[in-house]
Amino acid sequence: MTQQPTTVADAAPDSWRPSRTVAVILAGGTGTRLGLGIPKQLLKIAGKPIIEHTLAVFEAAPEIDEIIVLMAAGHVADAERIVEQAGFRKVTKVVEGGESRNATTRLALDTIGPADCNILFHDAVRPLVSGRIVRECVNALWTYAAVDVAIPSADTIIEVDADDCITGIPVRSRLRRGQTPQAFRSGTIREAYRRAEGDPDFAATDDCGVVLRYLPGTPIKVIDGADENIKVTHPVDVHLADKLFQLAAAQSHQLADHRGYTEELAGRTIVVFGGSYGIGHELAELATRFGARVFPVSRSATGTHVERAEDVEAALRTAYEATGRIDHVVVTAGILEKGALAEMDEETIDRLIRVNVVGPVTVARRALPYLQQTRGHLLLYTSSSYTRGRARYALYSATKAGLVNLTQALADEWGEFGVRVNCVNPERTATPMRTRAFGEEPAGTLLSAEAVAQASLDVLLSDLTGQVIDVRRSADDPAREVRAAVVPAQPGGPADGTGTAAAGAEQHAW
Q1: How many CA atoms lie within 13 A of 178 on its CB side?
Q2: Where is this region: Disordered (predicted)?
């Protein structure tokens, strides 16, 4: 939206002609409250540094012409490296921030220069800001000289005195919780700070507060924020933001019709370890119908043991030689040995660990060279028992927790190669394996293997990495099996039972 500048800083709405719209990303936090050794904006969430998620929103916003980053002291090079690796073209400068929020704003204004422009100030640690919020902020500047973002307060707010006794309870309907971005016509925010310089008691925690105090006649428009536009400040915020990213990313890749899946999957190669039946078989069948070249392998069908490196390499080589590429590798192979740990023999323990842990590790190691070529995706499977070990499932629970940690670690290690790694956590699923292990169960209490396969396909087509994603029955219609609900994994999830095998059964847990 680059336009000709005007010499009037705060022209009437119909004559305001900003030269450009600049997003200023305030990244001066140090992470003290999170107990980190690095600034919180560099902490990884959903497989990427928080600041990278934030910058991506403004990079993608057509209303934004330029981005300037005000980075924490000593970490400018870190931010520059993120910008370069992500290919953010709108970022023109990364400079060191000031000692306070207000000092950082002044530095940003100096960096932007004197031309009339729209300026949006946004906290780097609000990575879930939406394009809708950015758009509405910029649009509002055609009418207002200052714009804030806020949401209604869900809690009653109380005022207290020095002794922590209530002195007042404001009417909640008129209260809002402030967020960012905060947007201004450049002349307005510059004039507010100019006047503030003459106040020896000047102190403010946000820029709209500076305008409110020093330009009291200036209306500040409030647009609706969003509950998910949280600020990552405390340890619980890291967990919440991570889960919100999982939900948003997974749902955004649920395609509307078969044509969309065919367009996405045609020409891709998928290797499914554990693809003889259950979820692995359904995933192979589904992807094949959408045009993918699928190679299902298993111990029963192809004599492939996931814990044997030579078997894994042979399966991958066969797929590669046939199609010239491998885009996705899926590992559904696993076993469940029930019984008290003290009563298990060494052979049983060794078999469980080798299939459930050594197997996925072996597949991962052998698959990486192929996935690097396509910037592909490795998909593993866990169960809700990873959040809390259960009696008579001790080793199984431990191996599933291990797969979660393996997923997260590999996502970090392989991020530089563009390879994504995720882990699906299905609710109890109706498979022949589960029926043999647990007997007949009431109709409508289990997911179908096809529904889990469909949700798994959505994950494969997403940009997620390093995530554990629950797949559950629809809350609106629990018996519905057309599409499973893909939601962020939560501790204490549904009871284990993802179609796993009883002791001595074949090595396909799903």
Answers
A1: 16
A2: 488-510
Region for 74 from its dihedrals, namely left if φ exceeds 0, alpha if ψ lies in -120 to 50, beta otherwise: left
pLDDT digits (tens, 9 = 90+) for 40-60: 999 988 778 999 999 999 999
Instruction: List, in sequence order, every residue forming a beta bridge with 224; answer none if it has no partner.
Output: 150
User: What is the homologous superfamily of the domain 13-231 according to CATH?
Assistant: Spore Coat Polysaccharide Biosynthesis Protein SpsA; Chain A (3.90.550.10)
Any idea which residue has 């600034």 for tokens?
39
* Tally of CB atoms within 10 A around 475: 9
- Do 253-488 and 13-231 have the same topology in CATH? no
Q: What are the phi and psi torsion angles at 334 (to 5°)?
A: 175, 165
Block residue for tokens 């105090």 = 213
Give me the CATH topology for the region 253-488: Rossmann fold (3.40.50)
DSSP notation for 401-455: HHHHHHHHHHHHHHGGGT-EEEEEEEPSEE-HHHHHHH----TTSSEEHHHHHHH
Neighbours of 424 (CB within 10 A): 31
Surface-to-core class of residue 165, CB atoms within 10 Å of its CB (0-12 exposed, 13-18 middle, 19+ buried): exposed
Taking the CA atoms of 157, 160, 165 and 170 in sequence, report the sign of the dihedral they define: negative
How far apart are the C-alpha atoms of 18 and 276, rounded to whole Å?
A: 62
Each residue of 275-334: pLDDT tens digit?
Answer: 998 899 999 999 999 999 999 999 999 999 999 999 999 999 999 999 999 999 999 998
